[in-house]
Amino acid sequence: MMGGSFGVSQPATAAALRRRSVIAVLHLTLLLPTVGVSGQSVGSPLDCHKTCVCASNIVSCSKMNLTNVPLALPKYTAVLDLSFNSITRLRAEWTPDHLSRLHSLLLSNNGLTFLSSEAFIYVTKLRYLDLSSNGLRILDEFIFEPLEHLEVLLLYNNHISQIDRTAFSGLDRLQRLYLSQNSITRFPLELVKERSRLETLKLLDVSSNRIKSLPLYELQVLPAWIKNGLYFHNNSLSCSCDLYDMVARWYLKELSSATDFKSSHTCVIPGQRKEKMAILDLDKAYLNCSEVKTLDEEAYLEQFLVLDCDTRQRDMVKRWALPGNIPLSPANKTAVMRSDGNLQIGPLRLEDSGVYTCYATSDSLNETLYVTVVVFNATTAGGLENLKTAYTTLVACLVSIVMVLIYLYLTPCRCATCPGQGLEKSDARESLHSSTVSLSQAHEETPQEKAEGGGFPYRHMAFRDPKDQMEQNGRLNPIGEEDEEWQGDSSERRRSDAESVSSVCSDTPMVV
């Protein structure tokens, strides 16, 4: 019984085991695609023998057709090269561990189109980041803010057309920013202007973009060490004499941004054909812009003048030499070198004219700048006095001309017969002015006067004193007693006018 029972149970047990193994294999077969998909989304563990090359603290996985960043990167990794792969999205979880020693990350030529806002929170010690030759289109706000130690950022050869003004905020140590060969239409002035610029930035490349205009005035006033690293060639800038003036001055100052790419500094001529021409040739053709020359410093006696030693590098060691190549000494009280390296001279004297020389040195560059000073033999106060005298003379001449015109054209008419009026005067006052002899006030004739007149109407005549006549012929009629006699009744004046004699040549007999 027992042996038969044992013989029956053994085949049954073997069959059961076979069924279980088949079920297990089916389960593993179903799970394999899931594992494969999960591995593709988060990346596979780092393999320093098949997919990457590990040399000390350098991990190079270039040209391995990776779609994600490998997992389990060593914490001592300093350089990570993932270039020339197919990593299109850089997510926040691409490295779950904090890589405190990583200082260089290379992600160029990956077709990268997406950057998570938290992509760099675990690699804050980065100093070199290469995102060039990808498909990035937009740089969002504060995207690089965690990278406070970053010094070099390569973003050239993307499709960037929009840059938020805060995209580079927090990059307090950034020295070089490459944005060339994109679709940028606005010059990022906030990166270089006085109050918002990145203090350590000494190279900004926005060449080969779609920028049509530049903030010329703001760029002109920048220090030379910033202008030396501003590259904007191969853009669609509109031709103008202001643009020529800026580029020509940079070229004369031998700034690298102008001299290194002289033939690439072109502009577009307005018009339908949109022709390009060299900016430095605008003084010879098309606009006929004025030629740019270096200008001397001009000043007057007793003024103070500051000479700028504007070098192509920042924080260079500077020293000055006075005219005649005399070294500047602390005993000189009229020429003092300031803390910023500039030279202040004054109060100016005639002997201060001449060529001043600034010698600037650094570990990589030596530079010599010459400044010519011309002091005029006059003071600004004297110039103002001369200007006041000339102004006063001019005003006096104008006032004199106005008075003459008033006298000639606005003086009331005093003539006996005014233009446009008849010869006869109806007013007794005007008749008096044109007469040299006038009758006395008219009165009624008595019979006795008629008899004495011998039949002629009696007229009582009064002759003026010769003195009075001279006064009338040469001057305006004076106001006297005879004028008062005309101020009688108006009816009597009319009758007197009808009977008066207005001229000494009258045919009427005169009886005394």
Automatic annotation (TrEMBL):
Keyword terms: Cell adhesion, Disulfide bond, Glycoprotein, Immunoglobulin domain, Leucine-rich repeat, Membrane, Repeat, Signal, Transmembrane, Transmembrane helix
Cellular component terms per the entry's GO annotation: membrane
Comp. bias (Basic and acidic residues): 442-452
Pfam families tied to this protein: LRR_8
Keyword Glycoprotein: yes
PROSITE patterns: IG_LIKE (PS50835), LRR (PS51450)
Gene Ontology process terms (BP): brain development; cell adhesion
Membrane-spanning segments: 391-410
Region (Disordered): 429-512
Keyword Ligase carried by entry: no
Primary localization class, coarse: membrane
Protein name: Ig-like domain-containing protein
Organism for this UniProt entry: Amphiprion ocellaris
